[in-house]
Specification:
Number of helices: 0
Helix content: under 10%
Number of strands: 4
Order of helices and strands: EEEE
Radius of gyration: 13 Å
Length: 66
């Protein structure tokens, strides 16, 4: 959340949210960004034949006072 956020795997853009991805086995860094929101990042360990569901909810960035 929100839809249309950019998904990066190991610092490479792969898709936009929502998406279903196939990731290589091993540790992967998942990063989701969208302007106006704080970036979301997690390390995920993928095992052969495994599947994971990731629900990333981005927080709005605070607007500095004028």
């Amino acid at each position: 959340e929100p839809s249309g956020s950019e998904i990066f795997v190991d610092n490479v853009f792969v898709s936009s949210t929502p998406s279903r991805l196939e990731l290589a086995v091993g540790e992967r860094i998942i990063k989701i960004i969208r302007p106006g929101f704080k970036p979301w990042e997690r390390k995920v360990s993928m095992d052969p034949g495994s599947s994971k569901t990731i629900n990333a909810i981005l927080e709005k960035e605070a607007v500095p006072p004028k």
